[in-house]
Each structure stands twice: as structure tokens, then as C-alpha cells.
Specification:
Elements (H helix, E strand, L loop, with lengths): L3 H22 L7 H13 L8 H6 L11 H13 L1 H7 L4 H12 L8 H5 L7 H18 L13 H15 L10 H14 L10 H10 L4 H15 L6 H6 L1 E2 L4 E5 H12 L18
Antiparallel strand pairs: 1-2
Helix pairs in contact: 1-2, 1-8, 1-11, 1-12, 1-14, 2-4, 2-5, 2-14, 4-8, 4-10, 4-12, 5-6, 5-8, 5-14, 6-8, 8-10, 8-12, 9-10, 10-12, 11-12
């Protein structure tokens, strides 16, 4: 069972993610297809579906999202892959092992693990799964423990890549240049998020708006700003996200015209309650989930 403080923090994750995405995309609080990818999974996890099940990934059509050849398209795809880890983390807060496994598979864009031949293919983003694990387990620590830790998931990675990830994320957090190519496109976006957060992230909840707004205006990739927003909101809870953002956010042009910021709050809370049987008459349950 989550404490009231943990429930509050879980409720803020998707809201912070969408706010960072929308502000960085410059679309007047319209979240992009990156947030839409996370919302698609959240709609399933909020309804009690287990993201570690293959059937869930099949419902999402994950196998239909191949590696993109064009660099700009590859970055957009990578952003979707990273951000859809957020609802996975919320749904599996009580099981870090299952969280890591599900995050890796959902981020793969295929719904299955990489084969040996795919791992050896230079066009494959081989660091994507590791980045998803790190992001998901960092979100878990933010929600459950109320702290930011870029390396919270390090022990869940293969031994041979831990030192590289530790060095890359530490450097990013300290504002030092990193070679994002070493960890792939998804990994580069995650490093960008921790570069936004810096050593301290935000010293208190009142500074979250400034950190995200400044990052959005800096030209940082929207997926990195969105990931930073999710981590900050997960650390500080709903009070850290301006009420105006909650009212203005929407997904009208990306397949969810019926969803606004407050619905993301409900999705986050319901996803974190995914192990609890749902009552169809629960007033917290949205009609869109029926």
C-alpha cells in the first residue's frame, strides 16, 4: 500500500511528463506524440493491465515500430520509447525486477527482447533497454522515497555496461560533455534529462516550474524535458506542478481529444493502484477506461 505522500507523487508523474513535453514542443500546452505513447500504456495500466504481459504490448502494436533511419525521426521514436516507460514504472512500483524487465521490453519498440543478430546490427539502439531500466527505476525511487537518483537502477543492468552508464550519467548531472553515441539515442535523451536536473534537480518544490520552463526554452530535446518533468514531479508531487498547467494541458491533436491534465493525474494514481481490483462504480475511474 502506498502512503498518502507516495500517492500524491505517483499522481504527478504523467502530469510533469506532459507539461515538459508540451512546453518544450512549443505547442500551447498540446502534448505531442511522445506523451501520447505514454498515455496509451497508462490507459491500460490504469485499467489493471500488467505491462509485463506480452498481450499488453501486442495491444499497443509495439512490433510495428521499427528503427527509424532518418536522424530526426529516430530521435522522435526514441522519445516515445523512453517516455512510455513512465506508466510501466507506476504500475510496477512494488516489484523492481518486473519493472526493469517490462521497461526493457516496452522500450524495445518490438515487444520482445533483442536477438543476438539485432544486438550486433550497428543500426540497433542497443542502449535503449538499459536507458529504460534506469529511467523506470529512478522514477520508482522518486515516487516511493522522494529523492532523485540517476543511478538507482544501475545494479539492474548487465555488469559490463554499468561503469559506462555511471560515468555518462554522472557527467551529465554535473554539466560535463558526454558522448551520447556510446549509449544510443534513447540513452542520449535520458542523459539530457539528468543534465537538465543537474546535481540537485530542484532544491524544493517551488523551483520545479522554473527548472522545466528554463529547460523548455533552452532548446533541449522535448523528450529530455518531459523525462526531467516526470522525475521532478515524481519527486515533489502535485504541489510542484502549477495548477495552470494542469488546466491547460491537452492531447486533442494526438488521438485523445477527451483527455486533459487532470485526467493524467487520475491515470497516474490508477496506474499505481494497478494491483488493486477495480470497482466499475469507483468515482475515480474515468469513463474513458470503461
Amino acid at each position: 500500500m502506498l502512503t498518502p505522500e507516495q500517492h500524491d507523487r505517483s499522481a504527478a508523474v504523467l502530469l510533469g511528463l506532459a507539461a515538459g513535453d508540451a512546453l518544450a514542443s512549443g505547442d500551447d500546452f498540446e502534448w505531442s506524440e511522445r506523451t501520447a505513447a505514454a498515455v496509451d500504456i497508462a490507459l491500460l495500466t490504469a485499467d489493471g493491465r500488467d505491462p509485463s504481459e506480452a498481450a499488453v504490448r501486442e495491444d499497443l502494436g509495439a512490433d510495428g515500430e521499427p528503427e527509424a533511419a532518418d536522424p530526426a525521426a529516430a530521435t522522435r521514436t526514441a522519445g516515445r520509447r523512453l517516455l512510455r516507460t513512465a506508466p510501466v514504472a507506476l504500475a510496477l512500483l512494488d516489484d523492481p525486477v518486473a519493472l526493469a524487465e517490462a521497461a526493457r521490453l516496452v522500450c524495445s519498440g518490438r515487444g520482445t527482447a533483442l536477438t543476438d543478430s539485432e544486438r550486433s546490427d550497428p543500426s540497433t539502439d542497443r542502449g535503449a533497454g538499459d536507458a529504460a531500466v534506469l529511467f523506470g527505476l529512478s522514477l520508482r525511487v522518486a515516487v516511493l522515497e522522494g529523492r532523485l537518483d540517476a543511478l538507482a537502477g544501475l545494479a539492474a543492468l548487465p555488469t559490463e555496461v554499468r561503469a559506462i552508464w555511471e560515468a555518462q550519467l554522472t557527467a551529465a548531472g554535473q554539466g560535463r560533455a558526454v558522448d551520447v553515441r556510446r549509449r544510443g539515442t534513447v540513452g542520449g535523451l535520458l542523459q539530457g534529462a539528468w543534465a537538465i536536473l543537474g546535481d540537485e534537480g530542484a532544491a524544493d518544490a517551488s523551483r520545479v516550474e522554473r527548472v522545466i520552463s528554463r529547460a523548455a526554452q533552452s532548446g533541449a530535446d522535448p523528450a529530455s524535458v518531459a523525462a526531467a518533468g516526470a522525475l521532478l514531479a515524481g519527486r515533489w508531487g502535485l504541489e510542484a506542478v502549477p495548477v495552470a498547467w494542469r488546466r491547460l494541458l491537452h492531447g486533442r491533436l494526438h488521438g485523445r481529444p477527451d483527455l486533459v491534465g487532470v485526467d493524467l493525474v487520475r491515470l497516474g494514481m490508477l496506474s499505481a493502484r494497478s494491483g488493486v481490483p477495480h470497482d466499475p462504480d469507483d468515482p475515480a475511474r474515468m469513463d474513458v477506461l470503461r
